[in-house]
Amino acid sequence: MQQHSLGPILGHIAGKPVQANQVTRKGARWDSGRMTPSDGQDTTSQGVARRITEKAHQIVIYWSRSGATELLASKIANLTNSDVCQITLTNPYPADYLETRTRANRERDTGLTPDLNMQLPDLTQYETVYLGFQTWAMTLSEPLKAFLQAYGNELSGKRIMPFETNGGYGIGNCLDVMSQLLQISGATNYTIERPLTIAGNQVDVADTAVREWCD
Ligand SMILES: Cc1cc2nc3c(=O)[nH]c(=O)nc-3n(C[C@H](O)[C@H](O)[C@H](O)COP(=O)(O)O)c2cc1C
Which tens digit of pLDDT belongs to each residue from 20-37? Predict the structure, then answer.
């Protein structure tokens, strides 16, 4: 397996260290996130981030390939003292950016989303679900589509707080796709609040925006 350094540890989520190599790429070096490698394991090389307590009324659920969304998730979870559930896949995306793009394009063209390898906790106790994802090809990334197809109906009655990272082109039509997939899944009585959207190389300096959005 290809190994890449994802840079320094920038935080922790559910006790696991968070690395996010995009934040070392400021200015022209960033190139809108293009060519950003991952650890080839969808950031699970340090173990799956999961914290389920009896008392929390809020949970952060997220997927991240190269750590930017995971870093944002860690900030939200720590600020709001939320429980945490990382979305994980049977076959992680390749460390190589171009190989990832090829696979993602194929999945989008065929509609065959990746298989999940995770156990969603019972969400009954949670009022708010912070749902974290990234924009791929100006739409919702394939793993989040897979999550909503499998578990969208579990979000019935929840206040959904969407947070997103991108390569600088914004959130695209992610929220429309999210609404469609929730509807198809049979989810009812949920609300989708204003999204928090941050460029992938700016998550390390987004604390004020995160705090304002959480408030
Ligand atoms: C396959 C692929 C497609 C992408 N497409 C877009 C895009 O259309 N617009 C955009 O702004 N960023 C795009 N990006 C950049 C990611 O949204 C950005 O790097 C994000 O912060 C990655 O989050 P992560 O580190 O949590 O995986 C793309 C990245 C990948 C891997």
Answer: 989 988 888 888 888 888
